Amino acid sequence: MISATRYPYSDEQCAHLHGIVCAAIRDAKIKFTPLAYAVFYQAAMNGFSCALSDELLTLEKGKTLEYGLNTLYHKYIGESCINNIALLDDITENLHQGSHKIVTITEQSSAVLDQQIDRLDADDVSAVDLASIAGKLKKEVMTLSVSQYVFMDTLNEAQTHINELKEKIASLQQLVAYDQLTGLHSRFAYDEFLKKAIHADTTENLSLVIADIDQFSLLNENFGFHVGDAILRYLAQKMKQTLGNDAFLARFSGKSFVFVFLNRSPEWVMQRVEKARQAIIYSKILLRSTKQEIGSITASFGIAHASEKESEASLQSRAEEATLLSKHQGRNRITQL
Questions:
Q1: Any bridge partners for residue 86, and if so which?
Q2: Can you give the pTM of this predicted structure?
């Protein structure tokens, strides 16, 4: 437990933070991945006395936790990863420039050394002078050689570390961009995609579809959460196979998926969504342990077609409303708004 004498928060607040960590593993069914670790580590590095910590304390356990962690990561850490990559590129460039400068200095020094060596041919140079000049020249050459060797070795080592950091940052960004359970894009990636797509000059038509699995809580109660997770993975792959590259697919929430169609007519989108709905209906899922077949699985769909200059929040709200209408009208159907 985090000690209140070390950090400015009380024991109760520290216990609350600890509870959020446990909820991330238990209630939200997410592993303690670099995403969650990065958020809590960032807060700890600031002594749990920063705005990030205050927002962590207000996170609700349960369905919103994973999205909350994604949001906090993006707000406090994610964008800095991109900035760090740019910074590392600058460091690499500076090191290369420094290397070029050392080479230039070495070449200039070599020219000076050559001039000094030429002076050795002078008739008025005594034996004592020759010995002194030779010693200095030898020392200068060795110093320059060692300096260049040390710098190049440092440069190579720095470049190795920079490459490692870039790989780690890229790996972390990859983890944030994909949902670990289903393999689809994450809610974080969906938010970013929708924001860019809705404001892009090349986007003429945009349709947002939310698919929510019907009576999913009963599946978890009857067969267990591990079966529920398996169903989510299976349906995610089923939708990927059905829609292919026609749509941007992401996990929207615990039992919901989202599709984004670009530059397609409403009629075309409706046909593709109907195909996805039917693919879910005809899915056959068997429990490996007992060979028991799980009953019919269906999903309710809501479609919202973006109007001119509509915001992401408004479009998403209409898609959610359409999905709820499908639920209220008997489930396993598609509603357009």
A1: none
A2: 0.59
Residue 257 Cα distances to 5, 82, 186, 249, angstroms: 44, 27, 10, 7
Q: What CA–CA distance (Å, rounded) separates 209 from 316?
A: 9
Task: Render the burial of 97-110: b for 16+ CB within 10 Å, e for the rest.
Answer: eebeebeeeeeebe
DSSP 120: T
Q: Tell whether domain 187-336 is in CATH 3.30.70.270.
A: yes
Q: Using alpha carbons, list the distances in angstroms from residue 333 to 215, 236, 268, 302.
A: 14, 18, 17, 9
CA atoms within 13 A on the CB side of 16: 15
Query: 310: buried, middle or exposed (CB in 10 Å: 19+, 13-18, 0-12)?
Result: middle
Query: Of the candidates 101, 27, 16, 13, which has an alpha carbon nearest to the alpha carbon of residue 65?
Result: 27
| Residue entry with tokens 């944030």 | 176
The beta-carbon contacts of 228-232 under 8 Å, at least 24 apart in sequence, are: 229/29, 229/181, 230/285, 231/285, 231/294, 231/297, 232/181, 232/182
Segment holding 250, helix H or strand E = strand 248-251
Residue ranges, CATH 3.30.70.270, the chain: 187-336
Of 76, 56, 74, 52, nearest to 65 by C-alpha is: 56
pLDDT computed for residue 299 by the predictor: 95
Low-confidence spans in the chain with pLDDT less than 70: 1-87, 112, 116, 119-123, 125, 140, 154, 172, 175, 288-291
